[in-house]
Amino acid sequence: MPGLPTVLPWNQTLGETIPPDTPHAVSVSLPTWKSNVGYEEGEQWVVDKMQTGYPRFFIHKSIQRLAQAILTQHGNTETENAMLVASKSCGTRCRNFLIKQNPSVDQSVIRILEFVPHPDRTTSADMTRVRPRLTAVIYPKELWPTAKVFWQHTGEGISSRQAEFCHRAYDDGIMAEHSAVAHSSTPRLSKGPKRYQRNTSTDQTHGNGANGHTNSDAAAGETGVPDSAQFVEERFGRNLSIAFAAQAKLAIRKRIAGSLTKDMDLPQSLDEPHDSGNERGRDVPGFSVEDVYLYGMGMNAIFNAHRCLMLSRGEMPSVMYGFPYVDTLKVLEKFGPGATFYGFGTQEELDDLERRCEN
């Protein structure tokens, strides 16, 4: 067909993950200049082949599948979309942004659904592990362009790994919509899962999960059949089991603070005394690991730094001086009272900035 690129051997990787066959890759193959241009211009011969993409520009298919599963039960797949975020507060910010950018929309059609662990299907072992929870913002499909801006510039969306983890829990009834959960229920005590087994706690006497899916994962957990995907992640991807999540976060915060410098595995590294010679507190009085906050992605850290400044100093216009990271500028422009951008670094811009600072 005229206009389509010539088929070349190295062009056969178009849309594949980088590295190949990596389910949670954050890079995608655009092997030719023409495919890069086609991606930027949204040409179907490129877009239709994309298996993945950069997380803030391409909603991972695992996230899309979970969103569709939630819509099937709690919405309308024909007329609505679901944006999946990490918490109810994130969902509230998303809903407020959609309403602010679309003032004529009927606010009642933008709903927030919170999904939490179901107490009747939670084992005693689950209480010490990462527990599945997320928030879905359900909105009309015509608001997708605005929702995409929120997803891209705030970094509030869930990750593909969290989507897979929560999807298993949702299918097995371990995670349920908040209003459907009986708060008076108590966790059911049962044997905890072994390493490399899918963590599930559904009643094995039932043939189907809460949403009509078979409990094959649950059966695997009881019979000791290993979860191969998790094994590959932990053995070859060098990703820790989620059982170490809290310890890993603390270790990262300690390393950023400079109080943990030795190359040691968990949990032994957390028992090491503070390395006061390297701790950054020597330059910042009172600084400690308690002053280090972790976010799921860099853009979310930038977004929340902006939020913290507005909360502490009031919602005042921002200034960005010099060559920008473009999405930082977008955050300043779209999530607050606006920004003045000095993008050339000229003497005139510097003088104007100085005058603003004096006022």
TrEMBL record:
Top-level taxon: Eukaryota
Coiled-coil boundaries: none
UniProt GO MF annotations: cystathionine gamma-synthase activity
Gene Ontology BP term (one): transsulfuration
Compositional bias of kind Polar residues: 198-217
Region (Disordered): 181-223, 264-283
Ranges of biased composition (kind: Basic and acidic residues): 271-283
Name under which the protein is recorded: Uncharacterized protein
Species this chain originates from: Hortaea werneckii
